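[User] I wish I could look at a protein chain and see how it folds. I have put the entry right below:
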Amino acid sequence: MFTGLIEEKGTITAVDDLGDSVRLTIRGPLVTSDARHGDSIAVSGVCLTVMAQGAGTFAADVMKESLDKTSLGDLGIGDEVNLERATKAGARLGGHIVQGHVDGTGRLIDRIPSEHWEIIRIGLPRELARYLVDKGSVTVDGTSLTVVEVVDGDAATPDGSWFSVSLIPTTLADTTLGAKVAGDRVNLEVDILAKYVERLLGAREDPANEKDTA
């Protein structure tokens, strides 16, 4: 489990094609300071397993499922990624509960700068929009953010479904979100609590689950 509080920006140093997967080598001195083989590290929101370690670097394999459903397949040498180690039991939950299981990708629509922060709008698949609520939590490239506004659009809506988040100076400086431009793809993980609620309510409404009280 993760919290969505990015510890450092890492850099891709190697991308090795393994056929149906790739092995990424990532430089991240902080997250590798106590990393061991088999540990979990979230890479731009995707939970990956440490397969090998070097001097301030680690290697992780990315399976086809992750390449198909996340933006990790877009990465090349020199690209930056957000890094977070798995949360220790008893640690403060400064963000929200993040699994590192990406639900889909979105694309940056635009940035609205202000004096001390920026608001960015991100387009997302309509099937994910229903899990977002104003002032709720969402994970963007591994970063825990608070939703400002949600628009559940359709094909007739100019920008389709989208949501906005506000980025404070720390987020702009310490994560990759500060350098994203319109059209860039980002990894999205919706709040797991919303998915559980939907599942439970759906089970209650399913007639097949009603007991015969006759």
Notes: The domain at 8-85 is CATH 2.40.30.20 (Elongation Factor Tu (Ef-tu); domain 3). Residues 63 and 73 are 10 Å apart (CA to CA). The helical segments are 64-69, 126-129, 169-174, 192-205.
